[in-house]
Design goal:
alpha+beta; 2 domains; 3 strands; 38% helix; 15% strand; flat
C-alpha cells in the first residue's frame, strides 16, 4: 500500500512500536491488503454509503483492480482489535509533526489562548445525576446542570 506509506512514515505510531494499536504488522488473515495504515486511514474518513462499496472503491483505486480484496467483515474484525488509544497516539504524533513544521506564534513569548464557558441542562437520567449531581428548580423538579469550558487557540498574524 504505497499510497498510505507517506502518511505513516514519519509518525511514531506503528503497529509494532506502540502498545496502543492492538494490531501487528501482519495484515488480517485472509486479507493481505488490510494493513494498519489502510485500516486507520479508512476509519478516519467520514464515509457515506455502503461499507462494502466504499471498500471496493478504495482498493480498486489503490491496487488498480476491480476484484474484491477486503470484505466489510474483515474491516469489522480488524476494527475490534484496534484500540481507541491508537487514535490518541496518532493524534499526538500528528500534532508533534505540525508543531515542528509550523511553530506556534507567540506574543511576548506567551501562547495566546482564550476560554469561554456555558452551562447545559441535561436530562435527569440516573447516570447524569450520579455523574454531575442534581439540583431542583423552584417547583421542586430535579435537573442536572453541567458547565462546559471551551479553549480557543488564536493564530496571531505577523503584524499583530
Amino acid at each position: 500500500m504505497p499510497a498510505f506509506s507517506p502518511i505513516f512514515q514519519n509518525l511514531s505510531i506503528r503497529p509494532t512500536s506502540s502498545p496502543h494499536t492492538g494490531l501487528t504488522t501482519k495484515p488480517l488473515p485472509g486479507s493481505a491488503s488490510l494493513t494498519f495504515p489502510v485500516l486507520v486511514s479508512f476509519l478516519l474518513c467520514a464515509f457515506k454509503g455502503s461499507l462494502q462499496t466504499l471498500l471496493d472503491d478504495l482498493f480498486a483505486t489503490l491496487e488498480g483492480s476491480s476484484l474484491r480484496t477486503v470484505s466489510k467483515s474483515a474491516v469489522s474484525q480488524a476494527r475490534q482489535k484496534l484500540k481507541a488509544t491508537a487514535f490518541e497516539a496518532l493524534n499526538d504524533s500528528l500534532i508533534g509533526l505540525l508543531n515542528e513544521r509550523l511553530p506556534e506564534p507567540r506574543w511576548q513569548g506567551l501562547r495566546l489562548v482564550a476560554t469561554d464557558s456555558t452551562t447545559f441542562r441535561l436530562p435527569p437520567w440516573l447516570e447524569n445525576r450520579e455523574a454531575y449531581g442534581v439540583q431542583t428548580d423552584s417547583s421542586g423538579q430535579p435537573y442536572v446542570l453541567v458547565r462546559v469550558l471551551g479553549l480557543f487557540h488564536d493564530r496571531l498574524k505577523a503584524d499583530d
